[in-house]
Amino acid sequence: MKCPACQYNGTKVIDSRPVDDNKAIRRRRECESCSFRFTTFEKVEEMPLIVIKKDGSREEFSREKVLRGLIRACEKRPVALSVLEDLVFNIEQDLRRIGNAEVKTEDVGEMVMDRLSKIDEVSYVRFASVYRQFKDINVFIDELRELIEKQSKEHENEK
Q1: pTM greater than 0.85
Q2: How far apart are CA 37 and CA 28, in angstroms?
Q3: What is the sign of the dihedral through the CA atoms of 107, 108, 114 and 115?
Q4: Which pLDDT tens digit goes with each residue over 102-123?
C-alpha cells in the first residue's frame, strides 16, 4: 500500500482489529520509509442490489431509505432504533442470499411489512397505509381485518 505522506510503496501492518460487527477490519499501518502512521479499512465488496420500482425505473437498494420509512412508521411507538436497524440489515442479507441482482420494490415492501407486523402492529398499519397507498377507509379496514386474522392464527399456533 502506498504511503499517503511520502508515496513510498511499502507499509507494514502494526495492528488489526474487527469493526462494524466483524463486517470490516481496521488496520493501523506504518510506512517503511518515513514511519508515517495511518489507518485503512478492509471490507467485502458486495455486488450492488438493484430495486425495480413500480414505474419500471431502477435504483440501487438503499438501507437508509428503508430505515427512514420505518422510523417514520414507528414515530412515538416503543420500538428501539436498533430493532429497526437489525430489521433492515436482515432484509438486505436475505435479498442478497436469494442471489438475484435485481429485486422488485413490491418484494422489499412485503418483506418489511411481514417483519414489522411482528414487531409493532400500529407501526405496521402506518407503514402499510403509505406503502399500499390506501385509497379509502374500506381498504384500510380490510388490511386491519387481515392483520387481526393473521395474529389470531399465530396465537392459535403458539398454543
Answers
A1: no
A2: 7
A3: positive
A4: 999 999 998 998 899 889 988 9
User: How many CA atoms lie less than 13 Å away from 149 in the CB half-sphere?
Assistant: 6
Decide if 77 contacts 127 (C-beta within 8 A). no
Closest alpha carbon to 28 in 19, 20, 37, 36: 37
Q: Measuring CA to CA, how many Å separate 113 from each of 69, 130, 141? A: 11, 11, 16
What is the mean predicted confidence (pLDDT) over 147-156? 78
In angstroms, rounded to a whole number, what is the distance separating the alpha carbons of residues 86 and 115?
11
Residue 33 is placed in which grid cell? 520509509
- The full DSSP string for the chain is ---TTT--S-EEEEEEEEETTTTEEEEEEEETTT--EEEEEEEPPPPP-EEE-TTS-EEE--HHHHHHHHHHHTTTSS--HHHHHHHHHHHHHHHHHHT-SEEEHHHHHHHHHHHHHHH-HHHHHHHHHHHTT--SHHHHHHHHHHHHHHHHHHHHHH-
Q: Are 142 and 125 in contact (CB under 8 A)?
A: no
> CA 134, CA 109: separation in Å to the nearest integer?
14
